[in-house]
Write a structure and sequence with these properties.
The complex is a heterodimer of chains A (about 190) and B (about 80). Chain A has about 190 residues and is mainly alpha-helical. In chain A, about 50% of the residues lie in helices and about 0% in strands. The N and C termini of chain A lie far apart (about 45 Å). By secondary structure, chain B is mainly α. Chain B has helices spanning about 1-5, 10-15, 25-35, 35-55, 65-80. The chains are: A mainly alpha (about 190), B mainly alpha (about 80).
């Protein structure tokens, strides 16, 4: 499955090894994305497994997309078709909620500085655990943005296209909510400054 | 400073980090950052979080998941060869 961009005709031609390579490479990510709309991990696993049938059946053109992006599109399409709850972001500016700034300007509650080695700490096992769990606290749409943009390294354009977000940066959906502590991985951020 | 009053620095942070701000807005934001340690720290924390999130991969598949997936393929193949 060289390059991951070639149409998976080898799959339809009976290449089990190609199929195994693709699933080993992308199934865990597909399950993680499925978990943004599935009620539990077992259902997420099932949704991801079902998604693999689409490339086999050739139900949807790949359209030049990388296999991973294509799979994600198929999965999101399946979720929408199944009537998965839509969790739209609240109207208005999610970052500039009341209480974050004083009336005359400036921070009412400025972010507590993180230590110099914050990144190393977040990349250590405990930090990874916190970062990995943090998106679960987000609503569906921003959670998908974080997973796709940061976790899967898709471009902003790809994320916008997949999620049908018409914004310069879909990441704005994952901006901190009004009243939330300044950025960071929630408990992870608090742990860093404690 | 009017930017801060409306919280636009925070909202624009996403576009700034995606390099999606128009040049004029980018210059204004950077001028603000030069004099505001809190907003600078805010952006630094977002950047660190993004970087760390990129390194936190999905959970490994449970035991047996790969075999289960591998079995999906021959089942699909045999269903293709059955007379309709």
């Amino acid at each position: 499955v060289a390059g991951d961009t070639e149409p998976p005709g080898r799959l339809r031609g009976g290449d089990q090894e190609a199929f195994d390579q693709l699933t080993r490479r992308h199934h865990a990510s597909t399950v993680r994305l499925a978990a943004t709309h599935a009620a539990d991990r077992a259902l997420a696993g099932q949704a991801a497994r079902d998604t693999w049938l689409d490339p086999l059946e050739g139900n949807d053109g790949q359209g030049g997309l990388e296999v991973k992006t294509w799979l994600f599109r198929l999965l999101i399409g399946r979720a929408a078709a199944a009537g998965a709850r839509e969790d739209r972001p609240p109207a208005g500016d999610p970052a500039a909620g009341p209480g974050r700034f004083v009336a005359t300007g400036g921070w009412a509650c400025p972010p507590r500085p993180w230590p110099e080695d914050a990144e190393q700490r977040l990349c250590a096992p405990r930090g990874r655990q916190l970062i990995g769990a943090a998106p679960r606290g987000l609503p569906e749409a921003p959670r998908r943005v974080v997973l796709l943009r940061d976790g899967e390294d898709l471009t902003s354009g790809e994320v916008g296209q997949l999620l049908q977000v018409n914004q310069a940066s879909p990441r704005v959906l994952s901006a901190p909510r009004a009243g939330a502590p300044p950025p960071g991985p929630g408990a992870g951020g608090r742990e860093l400054v404690s | 400073m009017a930017w801060l009053r409306t919280g636009i620095v925070c909202r624009k942070a996403a576009d700034y980090l995606e390099d999606a701000l128009p040049p004029r807005d980018r210059s204004r934001l950077e001028a603000h950052l030069a004099g505001c340690p809190h907003c600078t720290e805010y952006l630094r924390q977002i950047q660190i979080t993004i970087s760390a999130a990129g390194q936190a991969g999905p959970h490994p598949l449970p035991p047996g998941a790969c075999n289960e997936l591998a079995a999906l393929y021959p089942r699909w193949r045999s269903s293709q060869h059955q007379p309709s």
